[in-house]
């Protein structure tokens, strides 16, 4: 029997693209609406008795704490995704995220139920972290494993687009609530709840769309042959632990800078330190999400032309160049400076995010691929984005200057670039179960290159 290959029609490819984009957009809308609210209102509503500065740190910390549970979500979803299938886990994680987000929208505040309020808030955020940890791997494998070998970069960018779109939707909804529907005190009283409650509708739409997509052809062939690993996580760490570490460090270089905006730090800094209007800042964040969307999409196409690795290196070079200027612009340029800073951040982010799905998928063997990509992504998120907003806030408060934050961003960017140089580009490597031996060798510069096929040429 020949190995599974993607032979879907253009119509089926478009359906898969639509399903992965819509699903990840909804998932990340739910995740980012929390991060946006953490920087704007949660300090006042759930942590105010701790004092203004400590309350903000605690609020931002809840954004990061959820990341600690993303590896657990990745372990669970990776195991069952490699055993039961990609599509099943996509539906489960979508529903879990939606339920947690909706419940946050009806959660009483500290003034109403006391210490139980922040505890319940944290528990629901943990459920969001579990869902986010498991969702990404399934979405990218559904896209990449359905795609022709010479189009995996652009196919892998489809679920990646859900992140900037989710951030755009979250920022836009919050801006609408703060500036039009519930300005001023009304936003603190009830307006912040509306974006969370909207998740009920979005989850229903996403559920229907994801249920309509066929299972990945790679997993379908694995299941047909009965080649599922009984405990894929053990096989992953026994033979490929070094890949998990290196690939996770690649994502650290992207995630730390990314959570300057999506984690709420830069938004809160522009409002609290520079005195910019809250709604105006949220509109700027929404604009940045559009730039991030475009650069991510472009990076997916670029990765099919010049390779995943080269695209990453270009993106990391840009990130390193802007680590200091972004704060100079915000500190001296007012609203225009904020827009310029966000454009610089979003361009570099897209170049180091668009190729990620294809590269991760081509690193790990078929039978443990869901576990590999999910756990790697979750570990990278913990080491990179999880506490980046809180660390940045602590650096700002302890030094009184953003220079320390810029050094932090530069060092993590260089770390990501170094890890990128340790991995090989594997564009076009067969993804099916017949090629597991080839997939298991040659992913790093420390192993023989002869085991890796030449990249598939662009047609």
TrEMBL record:
Transmembrane segments: 28-47, 54-78, 90-123, 161-184, 190-209, 241-260, 280-303, 310-330, 336-360, 372-392, 404-423
UniProt main location, coarse: membrane
Gene Ontology terms, MF aspect: transmembrane transporter activity
A GO cellular component annotation in the UniProt record: plasma membrane
UniProt keyword Transmembrane, yes or no: yes
The keyword Nucleotidyltransferase is assigned to this record: no
Residue ranges constituting the Major facilitator superfamily (MFS) profile domain according to the UniProt record: 16-428
UniProt topology in membrane: Multi-pass membrane protein
Superkingdom in the source lineage: Bacteria
Intracellular or extracellular location(s): Cell membrane
Signal peptide interval: none
InterPro entries found in the cross-reference section: MFS, MFS_dom, MFS_trans_sf, Sugar_transporter_CS
Keywords, sorted A to Z: Cell membrane, Membrane, Transmembrane, Transmembrane helix, Transport
UniProt-recorded name of the protein: Putative MFS family arabinose efflux permease
